[in-house]
Amino acid sequence: MRPEPRTSRIALIACLGCLAALATGCSSSSGGTAKTSAPPVARNTSTSSSVVPPTSAALTPPATVADSDLSGSWSGNYGGAFTGTFSLTWQQTGSKLAGTITLSTENNAPVPLTGTVSGSTISFGTVGSQAITYSGTVSGSSMSGTYQVGGQPGGNWSATKS
Predict the structure, then answer these.
(1) Rounded CA gap, 45 and 55, in Å?
(2) 97, 136, 148, 152: which has the highest count of C-beta atoms within 10 A?
(3) pTM higher than 0.90, yes or no?
(4) Quick check: 125 and 115 in contact, CB under 8 A?
(5) Range(s) for CATH 2.40.128.120 in the chain?
(6) Residues in the chain where the model's pLDDT stays below 50
(7) Which tens digit of pLDDT belongs to each residue from 26-38?
């Protein structure tokens, strides 16, 4: 026995509403602000009764890049196992970072480095005689975090955009 067309439409609307709620509840948010509407739903145009389907659902995809472009020159300092100053030059393409770092303790020779940024989280590293890795957060024109040397804790670092 086939269900009545009205019953089928109500079931379809209910299913779409559940899917929209499920998608909203399962999405992970890291600060993104994009909103996406749910797919359009056919409306019941009969005059006997009206069913109002859900019209949209806020779907926020996870952030993958920083809110601002990190490309350019940065200067900062580091402390802990080693102490000094540094300058960074970044070129950002999407979530990828490439550039150079010049440490005050390394004869002012620029060293290539690569990194990533996702939302406000940044990580980058160099490979020299010992691997040095940096991780932290970015907020506007400043960033800070911790560094490791050869996998061992090194200390803290911070930088501001020049």
Answers:
(1) 16
(2) 97
(3) no
(4) yes
(5) 72-161
(6) 6-46, 48-49, 54-64
(7) 444 444 444 444 4
Residue count (the chain): 162
Q: What is the pLDDT of residue 158?
A: 98
What backbone torsions phi and psi does residue 148 show, to the nearest 5 degrees? Answer: -130, 150
Only one residue has tokens 């709620």, namely: 21
Element of type H or E holding 87: strand 84-93
Residue with tokens 């009206």: 50
Query: In the 8-state DSSP scheme, what is residue 5?
Result: H
What CATH number matches the domain at 72-161, 2.40.128.120, 1.10.760.10, 1.10.8.590, 3.20.20.480? 2.40.128.120
**Which two tokens mark 157?**
């670092």
Return the residue matching tokens 């399962």.
26
Is 11 in a helix, a strand, or coil? helix
